[in-house]
Every structure is written in C-alpha cells, then in structure tokens.
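Key idea: predict the complex, not the pieces.
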Amino acid sequence: MSTETGGWRIGVDVGGTFTDLVACDPCGAIHAVKVPSVPDDPAVGVLDAVERMAGAAGMDLGALLRKCSVFVHGSTVATNAVLEGKGAKVGLVVTDGFRDSLEIRRGIRDNPWDHRTPYPSVMVPRYLRRPVKERIDRRGRAVTPLDHADVEAAADFFSREGVESIAVCLFNSFAEGAHERAVADLLRAKGLDRWITLSSEVAPVAGEYERGSTAVVNAYVAPRAIPYLAVLARRLRELGLRSPLLLVQSNGGVLGIDQIRDRPAVLVLSGPAAGVGALDLYRPAIGADDLVLMEIGGTSCDVTLMAGGEVALTDSLEIGGYHLSIPSVEIHTVGAGGGTVSGVDPGGLLFAGPRGAGARPGPACYGLGGEEPTVTDAQLVLGRLAPGLQAGGTVKLDLERARDAVRRRVAEPLGLDLDSAAAGIVRLVEQHLLHAVERVSLQRGYDPRRFVLVAAGGAGPIHGVSVGRLLGCRRVYIPRLAGAFCALGMLHADVRHDVGKAVRTPLAEDAVAALDDSFRELERTVTRRLAETGFSGERTRLDRILDLRYAGQQTSIPVPCVGGVDAIRSAFEARHARQYGHIQPDGGIEATAMRVFGVGKMEPLNLARVPAAESLPQPRIVRQVYLEEIRGRADTPIFDARNLGGGHRIAGPAIVEAETTTLFIGPGDVLSVDGAGNFSVELGEAKRVG
Amino acid sequence: MSVDPVTIALVQNRLDHIARQMGWVMLRTSKSPIFSQSHDFSCFIADGKGQLLSQADGILIHTGGGGFAVRALLKAFDGRIREGDVFLSSDPYAAGGNHLPDWVIFRPVFVRGACVAFVCNRAHQSDIGGGAAGTYNAAATDIFQEGIRLPPLKLVDGGEVRDDLWQLLLLNSRTPHLLDGDLRAMVGSTKIGAQRVAALVEEIGAEAANTAFDAVLDHAERRMRQALRGLPPGTYRGAERTDNDCFESKDIWIRVAITIGDGEATVDFTGSDPQMKGFKNSTFVNTHAAVYVAFGSFFEPSIPKNEGTYRCLRFVLPEGSIVNPRPPAPQTMSTVLPSHEIIHACWVALGQADAARSCAGWGKITHASIAGKDEQDRTFVMYHWGALPAAGAVAGRDGFNQTGHLNTLGHLMIPNAEAYEQLYPVRFVRQEFRRDGGGAGEFRGGTGIDYEVEVEASAEYSFRGEGARNPTGYGIGGGKEGAVGIMTVAEQGENSFEPPQFGIAHLGPARFAVASPGGGGWGDPLTRDPSRVLRDVRDDVVSVDAARALYGVVLNADGLAVDAAATAAERAARGRTA
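Result:
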C-alpha cells in the first residue's frame, strides 16, 4: 500500500439521495461530481461517480484510480443502519444479574417534560440478552469463574433465533477482558464465528451502560457496513486503485477498512466529523487557530469549536437516542437550516424550528407541495436568494409560492407586512444559530468574540455575517466551496488511530512510571495499524494521554502525559480552571484512563490559487434586497463568484452567488477575496437584538 | 407601548438562553457534586415585579416557584434595593422558599437607575446545619431541627460582600469549604445573567422590554388557557395518600378538587389531612410547584413554563394542612414527598376531564442512603439510586421500567453499578427488571427493579421506604396497579429483615435488597396488542400465567407465538363476564 504524493485525491460521500464526489487534481484544482445514490448497492453509486469524474478529466475509470493517491469514503452506511433501524439481529451476552442496563438506559431522556414519547426501541430485546454466570471484581480479578454451560446455552439459543451478530458485555470487563475473550472462543467453537463484538475491546470504559451500548451498536452495524466496504475496496482495487480505501471516523481522522473491521461503530459520526479536516485545511489561509465552525445544511446546523488548533474530542456520542462511548469530535447540532419550518404557535408566538421540511416537500418555494414557510422561503422573499433555477439546475425557486407561504402562515396571523414577517423568520433562526455557538464556546469556558467564525454548508454563508455580528466576532471566513466543506475535509484529513484502556491510579511519579509498559503496548498497536495504512517514521505522531480528575469527581479531563508529574498536574489544573473556574490546590488527582492517539500526517492539500484581480469587481446585477440595518430594502449589488479574483474587496451590502452557496454581507462589512478565492469578511459595527 | 411580535419571540428565546447560560456558569464553577453531577439547582429570571419570566435551566419541581421568593424579597426590602446589591433567602415560611436546603441568590438588574429584573439561582446546599448531615433529617419534628433559616438577607451591599454575614453562614454548615465555593458560584452565575439581561434591556429600551416581558407571560397564559379550554367544564376530584408520617404507619390524605372553568381552573385542596409529624409536609410554595409539574406534564410539553402559564390557576390551600403547613412543621422531604402524592392526585383529577391524556401512577421511592467509612477510612455517602422505581403508563407508551423521581418526571441519571463499585465499598449482585411488577394495561406499567447489593463496610442506613407497604403506582382507565415495593436487609450471617419505612439503622456488612415498586397500567389489559404481550412473556417481564389471567392472551405450547383462536375465545369470555 502507498499514499504517495502528487496524485489525485478523491473523496466520495454517499448520501440518501445523492452521491457526491470531490476530487483534487495534482495541480490543486477542485472538481465536484454529483450522481444519484443507489441505496440497494451504494458501491454502484460510488463507481458511477468516479467514472463520471474520470470522463470529465479525459481518462477512463482505471486510469483515474491508478493516479489516485488518496481515496476517502465518507460512508453513512453505519449511521443509516442505526437511524433507520436496519441493522442486524443482535444477541447480547451479559453477566447474570445485569441483563437490563441496555434497556434502563440510565433513565436518560432529553426533554423531561415530554414523558409521553417512548424511547427508541431497544436494539437487543430482553429475550436476546442472555445471562452467564461469572464475575470479575472491581479490580479486575476473576472471583467467579465463567460458566461454560451458560455460554453454550446462549450460543444454542442465538442459533435457533437466527441471530446474525453477537455483542458481549460482562460486568467490570473494562478492568479485565479475559472472560469476554473466553466467551468469544466458546461462541466460535459453537460455530458462531462471523460477527462478535467484545465491549472490553470496542469501548474499554467503566460503566456497563455506555460500554454495553457501544458494543451493541457495533454488533448492530457490522454486518451491514463491513461486507459492503470490503466489496467496494476489492472492486476499487481490481479497477486499479493502489492506495488503501480510507474511511472517515467519528474522531475526524481516517483509517483503512482493515483497521476498523472489528469496530465499525467508529463510523457513525463520519459525515460531520470530516469538518475537522476542512478547518485544518483552511487554517493557514485564515491565519488563526481559534475557529468556530457553523456548518448549515437543509435541516440542521453543526457547530464545532477549534481552540488553539485543536478540536476537542468527547467520549460520549449519541445517535438516534443510542449512546456510544467512542472518541468523537465534539459537535453540537441544532435544528436550524435552510429547510427549517416557521410559523405561529397557538398562543400567537412566532417560531422557527426545530422541525425541518426535509427533502420532500421541502421549502414552499420548491413547489413540491410544501405549504409551511421555511428559512429558504424567507430569504427568497427578502431578495437574498434569486428566484429560478439554482444549485446547478437541481432546484427551481418559485418566489410567488414563497411569498404566499410567508404571507398566510406568518404575516397575516401576526399582522405584519410581508418583508417584516420574512425578516422576523430569519432573525429568529439566526438567534438559534447564535445560541448554539455561544453554548459550545461558553460551556467550555471560551469567549466566542475572540474566534473567527467559519460559515460553511450550503446555507451557512447567507447567515454567517449576521451571526458573527451578533456574537461580537470581528471576522467571518467563508470558503468558496462552502457547500462541499466536509467533502473537502475528507481529502485533507489525517489518518488517525486512537486506543486506550481504563485505569485507576493516583497521579504520582511511581504510579505514572508504572504505566509505561502499558503505554508502550498501546503504542505498538497504534504503530502497527498506522503502518498497515502506509504511515511510519516521521510521518506519524504518537501522543500519550491521561484522563485525569480530582478524587471524588465523576468526569475526567484528557491531559497530555508529557514530562513529570508536576508538569502533568499543571496541565490538568490549567484545563480544570478554564472548564470549571477553580482548582483544588490540595486535591488528590487520579487517572481513570490512558490513551494513545496516533496520527499519520497526510501531505498537505495545496489548493490552486485563483487569478489575482485585475480590475474592480463588477456586479452581475443590482437587486432590491431587505437589509436588517435599515429595516427596509435597498439596492444591493449581486456578484458572481466566478468573476471575483484574489485581492478583490467589496463593501457591503452585497451578495455573492457561488456554485453551491450564496453569501450575504451587510452595510459596513468589507469582504475580501484571498489568493485561493475564499472570502474573509471584516465586520462593521451594527447592533440588533439577538 | 406596543412591541412588534418578532421582538417578543426574540426576547422569549433570549431570556431562556440567558437562564441556561447562568446554569453553565454554575455547572462550571460550583464545587459540590450535587451541582456538577446532579444539577440540583435552577437559574431563573423574574421581572421587576417578581414575576418569573424564564426558568429554562433547572429542575422541574423548582419551576414557577421562584417568583414567590422574589416577591418576598421585594416586600422585605421595599425601596431599599440598590444597584450592586445581592440578596439571599431560604425559609419556606418567611421568605417564599420551597424547602429549607434550597437557597436562592437574587441579583437586581438595573438599567439607567431603574430595577428592571431579577436574576436568581436556587440551589440545594450540601449542608445547612440541623440534626443530620446532608440536609435530610428524617427524625425532624420541627424545622429548627432541619437547619439554619434564612429570611431575605442582603449578602452583598452595593458591591461589598457582607463578610460577617458570610462567616455566619459558613459557621452554620458542616461543609463550609463547599458552601463557600458554591455560594461564590451562585453569585457569579447571577453576575453574567445580570449583564446579559441589562444588555437586552438596553438594546430595545426599558419600556419596550417591560412590554415584551409582559407579552412573554401573556403568551404562556394563552397557551395554558387554550389547553384548559380543551377540557369539559366541571369539578374533578383526585386523592392520594401517604401511608406513614415517617414515624408510624397511618394514612394521610391529599385531596384535590379541580374545577375547570372557561380557560381557568381552581385547584382546591380542602379536605386534605392536617400537617404531619415528620418532614413530608409540603410548603405553600412547594405545593404550587408540584401542581405546576402536574399540569405541565399533563398537557403539551411545548407550553412554556413561566409565571404566566399558571396565572389561570387559582389555589385553595387550607392552612395547617399537609399542603400548607404552619410553622414550625418540618418540610425538607417535600420536594420529593409529598410532591409525588400531589402530582398523583392532580393527575387523577385531570384524567377524568381528559381520559386520553390520563397518566397512570409512578412507583414511589423505596431505598436507602448509606454513610460510613471505606477501606481508606474516608467518609462516603451513597444513595441507592439503582433501586429507583418504575413509571406508570400513558396512552401509546408503556411505563419506563426504571426512572428517576416523579417531581422531575424522571430527570435523574441512574448511575452505572460499575461506577459505584469504584467509588464505594459495595458489590452489586443484581439490577434487573421485575417479573409481573408492572401494572397490567393496554399500556403496561414499568416493571420496577430487582436490586441487590452487598455493602462491604459497616454503615448508617437512612431508609426511605415510601413504596414498601402499599402499591403506589395506581392504574387508570381499567389498568392495574404496579406491584408493591419490598425492602430487606440482612447483616452477614443474620436473617434478613424488613426495615422501617423511614428511620435510621447502624449495620455491619450487609446485603441490601429492594424490589422497587412497579408503575400503573393504562387502559384495559384485555385490549393490549397480543404481540406486545407475547414480547413481554418472551422477555420474561410478564409470566405465562399473568398473560392469560390479566391480559387474556394465550400462547402456543412453545411460548413463541400467540394462540390467536384461544386468545380471542379467552378475551370474548372475559368480555361477557366483565
């Protein structure tokens, strides 16, 4: 395998409707292709997209694949299996007495007032959760031997029931996985050798609910995800691909199929996590290490915070009401996007979201039967979006339908004129976006005003400047390819492999020294897996991490295990102070987990530069656009992004229409185009309620 | 002055957001696990008249109760509230408090010299003195045994902390180091709240802000009135009892008559029993808050929760009764018990007005907290949350098999047993669903939990066996009640015994076991979808016998399928006899 430089880089993202391909050619130019997805065999859609790309580049499929140095697949196959309830029939082996933690779910419900909505159905019904007698104590000692007959009985039961995949979660197995491994051996001996997930391997964390739930989700998606990916990898290889098929993990890094075969659960946050790679890609051009990303699509907005060049990882991930404990990029999602529905509630109050209109019927202006006004309809009414064919001819925006929906559902019930109603919808949704960004930053102890707001996603750039102003930011950065932001991130993502294990040890010199052997063992595992993906030596970086807390606390903070105990202690205290506002000068500190984060550094992606500006920017047309600052319409120049060159500066108000997005700046703002054709907006002064 | 409707929506969201922001600051800066882990605090915002505008952050049983405390403060310090002041109070009899351990920090918000709002933080302190460590003194027979009582006090005077007062507070707590840090965090959270509210008011102007605040309250009021208009006018009665006064077994009743008028309701507790000897008396404010939870949970969850929501409710609370005791009745348990009974009584009454929304009863707590020394001779206090009871069913959903307290509609993270084994000298034996514990119904009550733990150290046990003598999860609309709780303890080498419902025992290493109470069923069990009964039998949470006897469902001999013909015959036969 190789990941040689200088070739094509291809990223393919399979969505429910479309399969998107983004490619970077050896000169750094970006190309995009969109083909219909083939839900029954997603690999067909992937190959269609590659073939289309090859054709556009004047090559055949094999030639393009042979010239491809990086091929990344952002697959939603695991995500969709969970969200659509289409995973495998799973059996679960548990310690006798602890059959139900998966269904008790620690009692977690998001909205306590809503007690009438049932939980999502449990992934493994109780009758398929089989108890076995055994016991590991809290320190990892086997105090009751594993009852082999119980395991064999469970195996027979699973066979009769036609179980496809088995998860094993024994009590205290985070401290010692020997019994789980013995269960796996016994199951294999009974012929159940296809899909077995051990909780001590996939999520070695204390806490039977989260560890077991992770193992179950893994078992649930494995038979759907792995065979598909293996077949795709083989077909690509047969067709000429020489680099490994890489997959985006929830931690934002990529890894080869062979390295995730045992733990496909790491794919569930595959899509939005790729935004981290994109932030890294644009970081040099932005010239700042403190960034907050607002990626807005049709129905939701994902907010990701990068502080000092690092994106925080969390161990707790929720998808569709199911909980996983795997390292994931910390992303806060709110129901606010272009398709967010607005209206007036029974008490006469304007609302926007969190519900979205989805792809069908979509916004009223799509003319697909939607009657409720969405944010897209409001922007169209306000003149910020252009009526007619958009997004490369894939949708047609009907201004009259948008006006009609806003008038009937918002303006008339509230006694407002049409523009005020539409502007109200936009202000309200922008307030939700503001609150989402404030939440992510303030909860972690950061002041968002110091950050550069990066507005991406198809619907991001139209809101970015307004939200940045409400936040108090001074600068907003908008990539020209905002609509393909995460796909681009895939091309730039580093290979990443994180491993860890639970420990319980005080932060003291001898105790930390005693962890050295375990760290070395974790490092050997990571090094091997990085090598299998084509990375070794100088192109890799290994970081030792300790999860630390004051004795008695229930949540830990990951801290680099660098230097002596004093250095580690100060690093912990600095993080604790930022997160919690205080430290305990005399508090005992203990480690709850040790980890090794392994990174294989991808060659930087060098995007092609756009020609420097040679003349003043010329608007395509001038349109009457509603401006919040004057509460009315004013002539606003509309620019075509293709006519803007490096060094161009535009004073707001103005609109820039690009291939996949529309950018809107207000009076007092100044937009400048950088050498790669991306937009940086210096915000002017203006105040409004938000 | 009129304010445009868009501004009203923006102001409502903004206030909710500010309340949450205060909560994040509190979470980030407080020291006690009760805040950072259990979130037992609520940040809220009231207008200048003391009407609660937003409590987006916080716990349900605090909802709506905060305004009483602000109004008590306004009364006590009328005309003497200045910029830079911060106030404190707690007493349920003298200061609009809900129960004594919940202290409230108030900070007035001044814009151009006028007080436009109050930002507040109500938080359960780790210790406030009194007869038992940790604020819950189950042996208390008056409030003086429960801790220090705080009338409205000026804690910060024009920006200067009153150090003498601060020291007085610390001196009255067993955990002064925690109290010191937590009070600072509470004060700090109101500081950011005040800045943000002031900024909002300055942006739109004080007059517009006042109008918008009123509009926010009016909107919530309209939503609740609309909900009440959906109910047929009339008087609906509900009653619920506790079967002990913490000292002896006796029935003490809470009786409510809810009279629905045109978009309004009178909630009349006339006929409820006199205040009790033990600490389960519900103070005036707590009773309001519990009724708010009952109404808030009965209707659409999207109805906002502020003081406007409940303007259309009129309360009749007989003085000296369990729902409005006279001082010095003890009251610390009130937020949990009898809040549970108050919510149940209101649910029963409301369920008669709208059977489709009726709610079956939730099991009552039946567990213990234990305190002792671990292997390293460190003091530990452990709550047996793993023995929490089950929820009742509603139309369309079976009861949760295990859930947190009813006063927060279950909003409590049940701990992992493995985590507890790391923290405390205990070894878990079992935490599994009960068989036939859930009340039968078209929708089945939650099963409750079979819970068993070896406590390896000697410990002081404080029992809370409210659900250990009688079934507590009532059934509704033909649904059956959930199973009664069972609580037993066996010291090493000794026979097991059933401890008192409330009380304290000092025991050596012991096995503590609970079968926690089941939730009530909703609707006639004979109409339950037979495939759901089959699943319950396969899951071993309903026995084959109960499937036939209670649900009229007959399974094939192998137990893997419903015998449709036999089930139809069985159900038809019952239909004739029923």
